[in-house]
Amino acid sequence: MIKAILIFNNHGKPRLSKFYQPYVNTQQQIIRETFHLVSKRDENVCNFLEGGLLIGGSDNKLIYRHYATLYFVFCVDSSESELGILDLIQVFVETLDKCFENVCELDLIFHVDKVHNILAEMVMGGMVLETNMNEIVTQIDAQNKLEKSEAGLAGAPARAVSAVKNMNLPEIPRNINIGDISIKVPNLPSFK
Amino acid sequence: MPAPIRLRELIRTIRTARTQAEEREMIQKECAAIRSSFREEDNTYRCRNVAKLLYMHMLGYPAHFGQLECFKLIASQKFTDKRIGYLGAMLLLDERQDVHLLMTNCIKNDLNHSTQFVQGLALCTLGCMGSSEMCRDLAGEVEKLLKTSNSYLRKKAALCAVHVIRKVPELMEMFLPATKNLLNEKNHGVLHTSVVLLTEMCERSPDMLAHFRKNEKLVPQLVRILKNLIMSGYSPEHDVSGISDPFLQVRILRLLRILGRNDDDSSEAMNDILAQVATNTETSKNVGNAILYETVLTIMDIKSESGLRVLAINILGRFLLNNDKNIRYVALTSLLKTVQTDHNAVQRHRSTIVDCLKDLDVSIKRRAMELSFALVNGNNIRGMMKELLYFLDSCEPEFKADCASGIFLAAEKYAPSKRWHIDTIMRVLTTAGSYVRDDAVPNLIQLITNSVEMHAYTVQRLYKAILGDYSQQPLVQVAAWCIGEYGDLLVSGQCEEEEPIQVTEDEVLDILESVLISNMSTSVTRGYALTAIMKLSTRFTCTVNRIKKVVSIYGSSIDVELQQRAVEYNALFKKYDHMRSALLERMPVMEKVTTNGPTEIVQTNGETEPAPLETKPPPSGPQPTSQANDLLDLLGGNDITPVIPTAPTSKPSSAGGELLDLLGDINLTGAPAAAPAPASVPQISQPPFLLDGLSSQPLFNDIAAGIPSITAYSKNGLKIEFTFERSNTNPSVTVITIQASNSTELDMTDFVFQAAVPKTFQLQLLSPSSSIVPAFNTGTITQVIKVLNPQKQQLRMRIKLTYNHKGSAMQDLAEVNNFPPQSWQ
Predict the structure, then answer these.
(1) pLDDT computed for residue B149 by the predictor
(2) Nearest residue on chain B to A127, judged by CA atoms?
(3) Closest alpha carbon to B387 in B260, B371, B462
(4) 3-state DSSP call for residue B302?
(5) How far apart are CA B408 and CA B430, in angstroms?
(6) Across the interface, do B94 and A22 touch by the CB < 8 Å criterion?
(7) Could you say which of A45, A88, A130 has the minimum Cβ distance to residue B325?
(8) In what residue span(s) does the GAE domain sit (chain B) (predicted)?
(9) Nearby residues of A38 by Cβ (< 8 Å), 6 or more positions away
(10) Spatial CA neighbour of B532 closest among B488, B568, B463, B481
């Protein structure tokens, strides 16, 4: 099973942390320790590492991928296939890309809750739930729509704005410019 | 109270903080605002506040005051609230806080909600952090959802069921009926999670495993699904880099592995599909390799036919040549697992593996090193050792200790010649001398002693090695010991193997003195050096005065160990000069013993403290009686506190001299030499003056000390008696001598005695005196059993006797429970 999923940037700042086993009081330390281990790695070595002491020592492995400024680290135990998890990370990132349109670190920073929701559709209780990207995106879209119909996190003020937007007012021409109109009398030869 | 700021605003604000202190300040301010907002029980903004709280929690700030708010959100009717509420529950709570039980009712209601997404949220939360109480309460609901036709919910319910089973294994049977139809689904998500559920059930309970194998015909179903996946051609939904749902394939392969393990029928049923997957999968991308890797692991684990196994190992060999580091790492790991069972097949790839030793990647190097040690055998030892020594030269420090130990082990097992062995050890000591483990030094010394013809060569090489540099402690210790023992060979310049060097006695003493003085030498090393200098006093002829001076200087050393040694040696010079040459004679050939128990003491005493006081003089040189008597006088004199005179492990027959006659009857050897303790055990009480002299305790309490013997077995004319001895030096060892006698009128032949003890004990059975118990009690078979009882538990034993009597084979089992308390307390 997957013990933890961590995303942090090149300086060690956590962008997402999800633990599937109760690690009390040591969560921040685990993030720091993992960052130390992973940042020391060279670019062209393999993507597998023994886990640090806090996260379970050599029984657990850290499988990581480095994308631009972010490290995606999955801490797994021996029941998971290492190459399979590598593929899973790839699918996760591609899904994020689809949901956020060319995802970058800022997207992850400002929409942490959405990333959690996407992750919850892929991994549940430390086990892989769904790996089909389209399926996941469909579910997420449906849930977001449900949220939007309740006006979402933004709460009351946004409801007012959307209420105004939904009012069915008759079409009012925006630009009425009455200066400078030369009213042309139409040539009405056909008029008798 | 102004509206709480939005999450986005908060994040933006925090990012503008330039120092940690600024960030903390902002967060504290916001926390205060959130807390007052919570107090006001504001429903509209609660979800916003909790979202902010979760963000701050991720950054590492305390957020526990939001836990109750999460519950209020979960209880709300709005989907948005529920979503954030459940997320908060998963992140902030875990099963150790009692508060989480409040969620149980909410989850129960939500599991029956009309909106599938709400049900999904509830399942997700339960599956992530449900405690065993919650799982027990809600298992029924989960089971109901497992049977629904909604695939979105079904897959979540399957994983939730896995979590429930993990927390409360007894509930496994509850989910059994629901699993019947799981594999008939078309939806891959459901298939995937169903396979996970079945895997978990099979791994947890062997009964389930058997059930699935026989009744459910699981294997044919899985084979069918796998076949469809491979043959189905391009399916855009599940395609990952050209392969159709590799995740599902990998999961099914894993389940097949569990089903096929140790089961011939299942293994046979899956042979074909495995061969198909192995040959048809594309290997250009990582996905293909992931599937192949899983297939190989499955083939190796089940009872597959040999052709398939060879195919699997060849795939691994191909992996080794792949450019991708991950693939190579994975290949090395699997080869390590299979090298025990398919040794020959893995040997074929030896050269590739050895090349991996030169890789830049640390993880790969470590795997390659372990695998290389596993592949060493008598044929390839020379080539492999060359590569391994080169590796030892150039590898990172964290590997050196393991590599050195591995090389020593391999060299010991497969050394083609003594000279090669010594050369290899020298090479290791000089390249990685400071990383060699401490227990290697005594082993090496013992090895050198045993290769008698190589002494001159060895000491010469060691001398040359420390001439330049004496900072590597294990090297210096071994060298000092050898120079002390064989210094005469060194200065005499006789060496057949190599060009002899000209060394004078003074030069040798120079080097030993510099070791003594040097700041880099540890206290142990200094001890070695001082003793070596002392031994040279009998081997060298012209420098005895110099040695005397050196020894007397250290009589006032601050180091207590050195001081004691120096004072004793000084006394040797002054009062016991006539005994000096006998005491400092060459060491006898030591027997290598590798068992537990009292031998540990004997070995280390004999080697790490090469004190000149030995109870048995070594075989070289005749033993004039006067010297032997003098030795006895010394031991009787008690002037010098004797180092515990445990006997060295030489066989009694190899030591010569009258001294031995006196010691001969006494079983002073704690060593399990092949000779069993005969019925001379009761005679341990003579000669009295010798025992007085050994004023340190005798090794064994004898029968006179009063452990009663017992009759362990008496049936059909066969009687077995146990007599006991306890070791004083190791109080958890009991030595039992069994005597088997036969009162019938026919001999019992092919008599075999076997014994078993409970798990906390360790047992060692020595060879019996014979295998025939003569009739009419005319003789007995004796055998020695050693029992190690570190936890001082009551001794119990089960014995099994087999023998031939009156033409028929007899066998009997018995339990011995009447051990006297003194034998194990």
Answers:
(1) 86
(2) B159
(3) B371
(4) coil
(5) 14
(6) yes
(7) A45
(8) 705-820
(9) A49, A62, A64, A71, A73
(10) B481
Segment A119-133 mean pLDDT? 90
How many domains, in total, are found in chain B?
Answer: 2
Nearest-neighbour CA in chain B from A125: distance (Å): 4
User: What's the CA gap between B393 and B373, in Å, rounded?
Assistant: 16
Q: Which residue of B has its CA nearest to A142?
A: B117
Nearest to B564 by CA among B520, B526, B599: B526
Residue B758, domain member (yes or no):
yes
CA distance B568 to B534: 11
Euclidean distance between CA atoms B299 and B275, whole angstroms: 9
Residue B164, domain member (yes or no): no
Which residue bears the tokens 């969560």? A27
User: What is the domain range of residue B557?
Assistant: 438-584
Select from A116, A131, A153 the Cβ nearest to the Cβ of B80.
A153
Name which of B7, B8, B16, B80 to mutate to probe chain A: the one with the most chain A Cβ atoms within 10 A of its Cβ.
B80
Is B245 domain-assigned? no
Note whether B580 and B714 are same-domain residues: no
Burial B620-636 (b: 16+ CB within 10 A, else e): eeebeeebbebbbebbe
Domain boundary among B552, B584, B616: B584
- Is residue B816 a contact partner of residue B781, using CB atoms and an 8 Å limit? no
pTM of the model: 0.62
What's the one-letter identity of residue B376? V
- Rounded Cα distance between B165 and B157, Å, is 12
Residues of A with CB below 8 A from B47's CB? Answer: 153, 155
Question: Is there a cis peptide before residue B687, judged by omega within 30 degrees of 0?
Answer: yes
Query: Which chain B positions have a beta carbon within 8 Å of A87's beta carbon?
Result: 240, 246-247, 286-287, 290
Give the Cα-Cα-Cα angle B257, B263, B268 (nearest 5 degrees). 80
Which residue in this structure is represented by tokens 């294994």? B169
How confident is the model at residue B624, as a pLDDT? 40
Residue of B24, B79, B134 best to disrupt the A interface, most CBs of A under 10 A: B79
Dihedrals phi, psi of A51, to nearest 5 degrees: -70, 155
Of A124, A143, A153, the CB nearest to B7: A153
Residues of A in contact with B96 (CB under 8 A): 22, 24
Task: Tell me if residue B553 falls in helix, strand or coil.
Answer: helix
Confidence band (pLDDT; 50, 70, 90) for A6? very high
Where b means 16+ CB within 10 Å and e means fewer, B685-695 reads: eeeeebeebbe
Residue range B237-270, pLDDT digits in tens: 677 777 788 888 888 998 888 888 888 888 888 8
- Count Cβ–Cβ pairs < 8 Å, chain A vs chain B: 166
Residue in B91, B155, B160 nearest the CB of A130: B155
Residue B751 belongs to domain with CATH number: 2.60.40.1230
Confirm if B92 and B65 have CB atoms less than 8 A apart.
Answer: no
Amino acid present at B461: R
Residue partners of B219: CB distance under 8 A and separation at least 6 = B213, B256, B259, B260, B266, B269, B270
> Residue B816: what are its φ and ψ, rounded to 5°?
-110, 115
Beta-carbon separation of B59 and A49 below 8 A: no
Q: Is residue B363 part of a domain?
A: no
Place of tokens 């989850």: B107
For B9, name the nearest residue in chain A, comparing CA atoms only. A110
Contact check, Cβ <8 Å, A135/B237: yes
Q: Which of B534, B552, B584 is the last residue of a domain?
A: B584
Please say whether the beta carbons of B281 and B243 come within 8 A.
yes
Answer yes or no: do B361 and A46 touch at CB < 8 A.
Answer: yes
pLDDT score of B462: 84
Report CB contact under 8 Å: A127, B328. Answer: no
**Rounded average pLDDT over B782-808:** 83
Tell me if B83 and A46 make a contact (CB, 8 A cut-off): no
Distance of alpha carbon B56 from alpha carbon B66, whole angstroms: 11
Please report residues of A whose CB lies closer than 8 A to that of B8. 110
